[in-house]
Amino acid sequence: MICKVPIYFDLSLRRFEDIYVPVGCPRKILRIPVDRLARMVGAQWIDVSRPARVVDETIEIAPRDYILV
Known about the structure:
Blueprint: E1 8-10, E2 18-22, E3 29-33, H1 34-41, E4 44-46, E5 52-55, E6 58-61
């Protein structure tokens, strides 16, 4: 059975031309253009940033309807 899992990339990644991703072992990485990786995995671009506000000298993050892992 094939299960398609949605993949999301945050819009802030677009500020980088290339990113480095792990490729299977601790000492190996792959340099790849962000847009190419997004196309390869079928990622959807979303804005996960959210406004923060100071409450009693601590930072409170506004809740979202989804969780990224």
